[in-house]
Amino acid sequence: MFGPLVVFAALTAHALAHYTFPSFIVDGVKTEPWANVRKTNNYNSQAPVIDVHSADFRCYTSATHATAQTLPVRAGSTLGIACDQTIYHPGVVNVYMAQAPAGTDVADWDGAGTVWFKVHEVGAETDGGQSISFPAEGAPGVNFTLPRALPSGQYLVRVEAIALHSADKEGGAQFYISCGQIEVTSGGNGTPGPLVAIPGVYDGNEPGILIDIYWPIPKNYTQPGPAVWSG
Fold this sequence. Notes:
- Helices cover 7% and strands 29% of the residues.
- It contains 2 helices and 12 strands; from the N terminus they run αββαββββββββββ.
- The strands form 3 sheets. Strands 3-11-10-5-6-12 form a 6-stranded mixed sheet. A 4-stranded antiparallel sheet has the order 2-1-4-9, with no helix packed on it. A two-stranded antiparallel ribbon has the order 7-8.
């Protein structure tokens, strides 16, 4: 029989294996948790989203109905998205953005429609079947440059860390998601794309989502989603 301390330790270890993305980092300064990022349903449980067709696959706020303060960020500057711990699992990361319609405050917008474009990704490193590694694993978050050509305006910024440790069966991949709000200043005249809808961007059977990362070792890895728009 397991004693209460053993059970507690097991539950604690399980909780620590999950994570959220509650803060931005701008000019080296981390914002307060959930100040500029919409508080997700899992802010306590840290449980992932599994269903890529769920409405929660967009921003994971069906229970909190959260909004946030909008953070000004210059086009061409570095934006960080901080994890509350580290990205514990082997897997990859995508960052999407969507511009709020003209005349709509991003705080009042849910990101519906074919409006999202990918602005950053952290994939896997492979060498033809000898090994596979995941640079995002163990990282405290992700950093990327906002394209200088990104038009000025208000945006949702959505991060997804896709944990692949159990992805060998349908519905086994775990998605750790959050959406923050920024206002891009000093922007350019680019046309971000290709545009996708979230949910809708994945069906769950993509080779980068339904995959056994252990055996046989994948010879290559295909990042889910559209190409990154870099301006």
